[in-house]
Amino acid sequence: MKFFRKLRRDEEGATAIEYGLIAALIAVAAITAMNSLGGELSSTFNKVSTTMSEANKEAKE
């Protein structure tokens, strides 16, 4: 019986679970932000690449 009373008072496990949930929430938010930002970056780099290719073609003419 003492074991169960001690286990009930012990809050270290609950704290670890809370930290784990916070870390998971931060990870999901970071992944979501990176996915949306990644699409915008890809678009920007494609525009830059196209512009540089066209400028290179004009310079060769």
TrEMBL record:
Record keywords, A-Z: Membrane, Transmembrane, Transmembrane helix
Segments traversing the membrane: 21-38
Domain of life: Bacteria
Name listed for the protein in its UniProt record: Flp family type IVb pilin
Species of provenance: Erythrobacter aureus
